[in-house]
């Protein structure tokens, strides 16, 4: 009798309805953020006289740096840390690539882009190693790196300038001039890195180790996870995506800009995307896919408010209110979950 009862209980626990509920409970926030993005785009389409390929291409290509940086910050936050230097690393990559790529052909600029991404990954891996070895809080070390990276960017490129090749611009923007109606290339450059990172985070042993140390360091250690290695890996991956964000900036503007304000704005955008994307700041919970939608939403706010005739300075207020509302909803849902348990 007991065996039959257990079999019925086991079968009911694996029914399609139960599996769907579990899937929705796990990915509900991510789905909600993407639906919110769709609502924003539809709203934007009603605010302008004509919405078509040009607007889609503009949103896709211009949101690339924010999306890449959101992915970078997401990896570190999921692993239980925070990287306050990630925006400055993007600016350093932008400055270095713009200076080195100027007047170069496509093959050379592509090689430089790969080198810049790998160099950014190595730099940030050293930051992760410093944090792991010294056990100094992430916020302290990365705050210092914010100024270090910013200073290096000014040394590499003292004033805005530089350039890149038309071929590399086409790779990221879908146009050799950086402006056009071809939205397939920027969408591909957005979707492919996101898909690869999401697969690696959820399917590979190294990726799952980041969730483990973000959830519970003690339990992760007892299960055989190398805490130091996981910390270094999280910062290395984040550095690579920050470098990719810098390359995207170079292709969009066809120049580099080492100003400190760019690093601060990029940092705030990455943190806002992480929060809006449903990644818990304490670590261990969330999806990088949600952060991508959040990054596009944060960019889309600007043209929407402009189309509504609202002062661009108000955009920061709207962003802040949106993040506060999202945090309130997240807190309410967490409270209900704990009460149910």
- Count every beta strand, where a strand is a DSSP E run of 2 or more residues: 0
Specify the helix fraction band.
over 70%
Whole-number tally of structural domains: 1
Shape: globular
Main beta sheet strand tally, sense and closure: none
Distance between the termini: 29 Å
Helix-strand category: mainly alpha
Notes on the protein architecture:
Helices cover 79% and strands 0% of the residues. The chain is mainly alpha-helical and 341 residues long. The protein has one domain (34-44, 53-335): ABC transporter involved in vitamin B12 uptake, BtuC (Orthogonal Bundle). The longest helix is centred in the first third of the chain and has 32 residues, at 16-47. 43% of the residues are buried.
Write a brief caption for the model.
By secondary structure, the chain is mainly alpha-helical.
Question: What topology does this entry show?
Answer:
Blueprint: H1 2-13, H2 16-47, H3 53-62, H4 64-78, H5 86-101, H6 106-134, H7 138-156, H8 166-173, H9 184-203, H10 205-215, H11 217-222, H12 227-253, H13 260-276, H14 288-307, H15 314-340
């Amino acid at each position: 009798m007991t065996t039959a009862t257990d079999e019925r209980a086991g079968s009911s626990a694996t029914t399609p309805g139960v599996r769907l509920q579990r899937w929705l409970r796990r990915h509900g926030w991510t789905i909600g953020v993407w639906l919110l993005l769709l609502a924003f785009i539809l709203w934007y389409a009603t605010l302008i006289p004509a919405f078509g390929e040009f607007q889609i291409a503009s949103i896709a290509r211009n949101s690339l740096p924010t999306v890449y940086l959101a992915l970078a910050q997401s990896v570190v936050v999921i692993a239980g840390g925070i990287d306050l230097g990630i925006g400055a690393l993007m600016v350093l990559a932008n400055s270095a690539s713009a200076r080195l790529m100027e007047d170069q052909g496509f093959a050379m600029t592509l090689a430089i882009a790969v080198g810049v991404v790998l160099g950014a990954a190595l730099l940030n891996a050293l930051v992760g190693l410093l944090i792991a070895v010294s056990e100094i809080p992430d916020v302290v070390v990365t705050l210092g790196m914010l100024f270090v990276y910013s200073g290096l960017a000014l040394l590499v490129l003292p004033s805005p300038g530089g350039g890149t090749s038309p071929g590399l611009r086409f790779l990221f923007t879908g146009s050799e001039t950086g402006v056009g109606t071809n939205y397939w290339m920027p969408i591909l450059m957005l979707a492919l890195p996101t898909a690869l990172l999401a697969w690696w985070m959820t399917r590979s042993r190294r990726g799952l180790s980041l969730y483990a140390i973000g959830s519970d360091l003690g339990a992760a250690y007892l299960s055989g996870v190398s805490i130091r290695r996981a910390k270094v890996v999280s910062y290395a991956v984040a550095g690579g995506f920050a470098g990719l964000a810098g390359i995207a900036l170079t292709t969009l503007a066809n120049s580099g800009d080492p100003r400190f304000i760019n690093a601060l704005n990029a940092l705030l955008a990455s943190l806002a995307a992480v929060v809006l994307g449903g990644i818990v700041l304490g670590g261990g919970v969330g999806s990088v896919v949600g952060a991508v939608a959040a990054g596009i939403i944060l960019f889309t706010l600007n043209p929407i408010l402009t189309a509504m005739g609202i002062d661009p300075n108000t955009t920061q207020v709207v962003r802040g209110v949106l993040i506060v509302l999202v945090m309130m909803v997240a807190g309410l849902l967490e409270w209900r979950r704990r009460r149910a348990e």
